Amino acid sequence: MPGAAYDRYGLTGNPFRDLASESLSDVELYHVNQAVDETIRTIRDEVLEKENRAVIAITGDLGVGKTERLRVADADATQRKAFHVYFDISTKMPWVIQGLAQEFRRSAQTAGLVKAFGGPAWLRGLAPLEKMKSEGYDPIVAGRAIATALNESAPSFLLLNDLHNLVESREVDVFARTLQEITDAIRPGVLVMFTCYGSYVAWLTVNHPALTSRINRTFALTALSNDEATLLLAKKLLAKRIVEDLDPTYPFDSAAVAALNTAARGNPRRLLELADLALEYAATHRANRVDVDVVRLSNPTVAPRSPPATRPTSAQPRSPTSPPVVRIPDYKEADPV
Q1: Are residues 54 and 129 in the same domain?
Q2: Contact of 27 with 70, CB cutoff 8 Å
């Protein structure tokens, strides 16, 4: 849809194309704080001040904001010049530990720790993992090498995204043991934070209880409230806004936002997908606003308008002398324009 189609709403284009936080370099601008975020921020601050060490698990379904919390922590570490390693765990990786060791080197280079004639001593401990070709590795040695790198670079963050992708890997058990060794050895000034589905934490609890016992806090992300959904859409719209003094969510009205959030079940990614469809439908049909009807027409998965409730009749029989009951039709207000 050309940008000109959206200028009727004071926008240069559709702001809901970027659905995933991993595609956004300025994730902090679009992040909507929920109750959990204040607690996570406090923990980060304590680590950055080297008052404490922490191991945090962030759980939830696809699209609820797990990766976004890691990206916010990553941006915070960058701003405050703390050493940080962010690593996406993919199902396609032959050996996660090798990719993670290589990411430590890249992070050290980015931080300016690698010089022309050498780098920090802890890089030598990771070198065998970077070049490993054998069928397996010692999780105790690997865990201690990574913990040493984090301790000697403190304050430091290790941010592991989508740990549940290991569940079908031959490395699932050995990496869990490695992670346990890391959590045993880190000192104040180190944060280890990972994201996964709740079912993976349940699996770890059964199969690796020693690791789960070392997790300081597990945060299960909750659905967006309507107010939080409104703020998310407003932040996204602001990025494409060319006309000032408009309602922050224009062209969406409050009822439309509530309908979108209900249909998305409070899932941020799904909310943006539905908002994308609704805005595109409104622009194509030259609607003045995105109201509840536009939301419903733009996507058949949104529940139709509920029919008016019928007035219940009395359960008691009327006496023959009772006057007849006159039915008064239910009044229904017209939809606002």
Answers
A1: yes
A2: no
pLDDT score at 17: 80
Q: What are phi and psi of 291, to 5 degrees?
A: -105, -175
| CATH number of the CATH domain containing 216 | 3.40.50.300
By residue range, what is the domain housing residue 291? 3-16+224-298
**pTM of the full predicted structure?**
0.84
Per-position b or e across 174-188, b if 16+ CB within 10 A of its CB? bbbbbbbbbbebbee
> Is residue 129 in some structural domain?
yes
Length in residues, the chain? 337
Contact (Cβ atoms closer than 8 angstroms) between residue 19 and residue 206: no
Question: For residues 265 and 259, what is the distance between their CA atoms, to the nearest angstrom?
Answer: 10
Sign of CA dihedral 258, 264, 268, 274: negative
pLDDT above 90 as % of the chain: 74
| Calculated CA dihedral for residues 13, 18, 19, 25, nearest 10 degrees | -140
Tokens of 212: 């789960």
Our CA dihedral for 119, 122, 124, 127, rounded to 10 degrees, sits at -110
CB 215 within 8 A of CB 57: yes
Residues 187 and 279 in one domain: no
Task: Collapse the DSSP code of 218 into the 3-class scheme (helix H, G, I; strand E, B; otherwise coil) and give the result.
Answer: strand
| Residue 152 and residue 237 share a domain | no
- Among candidates 50, 124, 114, which has minimal Cα distance to 82? 50
pLDDT digits (tens, 9 = 90+) for 283-334: 999 999 999 999 999 987 776 554 444 444 444 444 444 444 434 344 344 4
- Closest by CA to 44, choosing from 16, 79, 10, is 79
CB distance 147 to 185 below 8 Å = yes
- Cβ atoms of 224 and 271 within 8 Å: the answer is yes
The Cα–Cα gap between 332 and 318 comes to 29
* Element holding 195 (H helix, E strand): strand 190-196
225 contacts: CB under 8 Å, gap ≥ 6: 261, 266
The two three-digit tokens of residue 61, written as one number: 């379904």
User: pLDDT tens, 73-118?
Assistant: 999 999 999 999 999 999 888 789 999 999 999 999 999 998 766 7
